[in-house]
Design a protein that fits this description.
The chain is mainly α. 53% of the residues are buried. The protein starts with a helix and ends in a 5-residue tail after the last helix. The protein is globular and about 50 Å long. The chain is 73% helix and 0% strand.
């Protein structure tokens, strides 16, 4: 049931991205963040509602999920991403080409992906897994609005994936159905995974500091 929840939650989150990204609406970042928020509330009590291999990486590093769940979670997330962007293309006739902004150095795009994914992982670990906040109802809002901030502040620079399932799903469908390439996919795999690791390491230091002496 956990893996199914990861697939379903990732699908609906990324399906919303696939449609919103082609909508031309100024509200696109809010729609994307809210999609994540509601899916977190949908599946948080079942799977932890990662919907992102980088978040799962952070969770397994900090032992907030069984290591045996990691590979099934990532497979479900990436598969859901490909299906979601394919369905979005089938409905709209348009693919989503995620790439750095015009004239942006790929190294700068990579740094933005790393930093905002670290921010996301740090928020998820603190609001959804820390013993002082675990189970409190605000976690979905905090996680969803982290993506709103990341999309508005960093999306125009890096392309705004912050999630390997987004980067892979969009690239696969764009390359196979939209004539795109896989040239930028490494940014959206390496950046978020490094960001997830960074967020996990920072959280580990926070958690150690918050343990009462004795």
């Amino acid at each position: 049931m956990k893996v199914l929840t990861e697939f379903v939650g990732t699908f609906f989150f990324l399906f919303a991205i696939s449609l919103a990204a082609n909508s031309g609406s100024v509200l696109t970042p809010i729609a994307i963040g809210c999609a994540l928020m509601v899916m977190v509330y949908m599946g948080g009590h079942i799977s932890g509602a990662h919907y992102n291999p980088a978040v799962s990486t952070a969770a397994v590093i900090q032992k907030k999920m069984p290591a045996s769940d990691f590979i099934p979670y990532v497979i479900a997330q990436v598969a859901a991403g490909i299906v979601a962007f394919f369905v979005g293309w089938w409905i709209t006739g348009r693919t989503v080409a995620i790439a750095p902004g015009s004239g942006v150095d790929p190294a700068k795009a990579l740094i933005v992906e790393i930093l905002f994914t670290a921010m996301l992982a740090l928020v998820v670990l603190n609001v959804a897994t820390h013993r002082k906040t675990e189970g409190r109802g605000f976690y979905g809002l905090a996680i969803g609005f982290t993506i709103v901030v990341a999309a508005i502040a960093g999306g125009g620079i890096s392309g705004g994936a912050f999630n390997p399932a987004v980067g892979i799903g969009a690239a696969v469908v764009d390359a196979t159905q939209g004539g795109g390439t896989f040239g930028n996919i490494w940014i959206y795999i390496v950046g978020p995974i490094v960001g997830g690791i960074l967020g996990a390491l920072i959280f580990g230091m926070q958690e150690r500091e918050s343990v009462p002496p004795g």
